[in-house]
Structures are given as C-alpha cells and as structure tokens.
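User: Can you recover a sequence for this backbone? Please restate the input before giving your answer.

Assistant: Of course. Working from this structure:
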C-alpha cells in the first residue's frame, strides 16, 4: 500500500497526531505518527520503439508493468525475423544464431536497439590492487565468459569496456552477463563480489574488488 502511495504522491512527509481515550475522557495513549514516502527512481524511455508503434503509445504500453524490460516486445516477432544489424534470427520463439531465409522479416533486435540507444541493462565495475597487477588476465577471463554467454544467448552481449588506471567498467545489454562475469571472477580469484538489482528488476550492477 505504501509503495503505491509513493508512486502516486512522490516524495513527501506527513505528521499526524494520534490519541486513544478511555472512560471519562482520560487519555490512554497519545503521540505523533510520522510517515515518509519517497518517489521511485524514473526509468529512461528507450529511444527506438518497436516497429509499428508510435513513441507516445509505446511509452504508455511498456510502463504499464514497472518490471517489464522495455526492450522486449510484448508480442512475438513475425517468424522468421532477422536482425538488420547483427544477423541474429528470431525463430521458434527465441533469438538464435542461424542462417535466415531470403524472405525473412527484417527488424532490429532488442540487444542492437539497446546498443544504439546506449542504454545498458547491466554494469560490471572491477577495481583493486590485484586488478592493477593482473589486468590482462582478468580481461581475458571477462571476455571469454561474455563470448560464451553471447554464443548461447544472442541478446546477451557486452556493449563497452571502459578502462581507467584504477578500475574497469563493463556495460552489457542484459542482466545475465554481469552475473556470469562476477561469478567467474570470484571463482578464479576470490575477492569481494556484490550484486545490486535495480528497482525495476531489469538492471543489475555487479562490483568486484580485490
């Protein structure tokens, strides 16, 4: 109930006096009830609506359910559909790496739309002294895990790898690749691993430090 109120009202604070009286008007309990309601963080709207939808109608539809991934179509794509950017094929209800027929429907897949909009679903942040002395080794493991995930699930990909002297930040099109990378690093090198899901359940920030 309070979560719904927070979504409707935004950030606010109320103080309400309360009291309970017994026989003869004698006060038994009195005090002040303080309620604080905070607004949920807004979710950015994708820049590229699914084919056939206007931006306004698309915006209304994808946010009916706050946990719905805005880049996943509510209905199925025509089969077969080939992504005009990466060549992945939607067939038998899922995206896969395959050779499309010449008459296949052409449309940009969810992963390529995220890349085009520069709106990642996952972030992996690596840091620590161990990273500084084993950077190439860690990057090799990271890319190996990401490549295997992409081969098995075409919509799960690395978007960018940004290297700084004291950290590496990886962005992905999905929430599964960061978890796979983090688990692989923890198994191989131990260290401190933390995962934090976004409130909409379709964003994930993984941090690993050693």
């Amino acid at each position: 109930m309070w979560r719904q109120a927070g979504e409707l009202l935004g950030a606010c604070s109320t103080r309400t006096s309360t009291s309970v009286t017994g026989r003869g008007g004698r006060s038994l309990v009195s005090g002040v009830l303080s309620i604080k309601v905070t607004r949920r963080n807004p979710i950015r709207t994708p820049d590229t609506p699914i084919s056939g939808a206007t931006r306004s109608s698309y915006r209304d539809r994808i946010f009916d359910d706050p946990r719905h991934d805005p880049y996943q179509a509510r209905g199925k794509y025509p089969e077969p559909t080939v992504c005009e950017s990466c060549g992945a094929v939607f067939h038998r209800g899922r995206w896969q790496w395959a050779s499309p027929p010449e008459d296949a429907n052409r449309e940009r897949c969810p992963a390529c739309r995220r890349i085009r909009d520069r709106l990642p679903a996952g972030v992996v942040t690596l840091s620590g002294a161990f990273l500084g002395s084993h950077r190439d080794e860690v990057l090799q493991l990271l890319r190996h895990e990401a490549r295997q995930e992409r081969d098995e699930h075409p919509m799960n990909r690395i978007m960018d790898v940004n290297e700084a002297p004291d950290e590496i930040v990886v962005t992905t099109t999905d929430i599964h690749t960061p978890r796979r990378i983090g688990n692989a690093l923890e198994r191989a090198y131990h260290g401190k691993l933390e995962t934090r899901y976004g409130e909409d359940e379709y964003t994930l920030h993984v941090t690993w430090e050693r």
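That completes the design. The CA atoms of residues 150 and 156 lie 5 Å apart.
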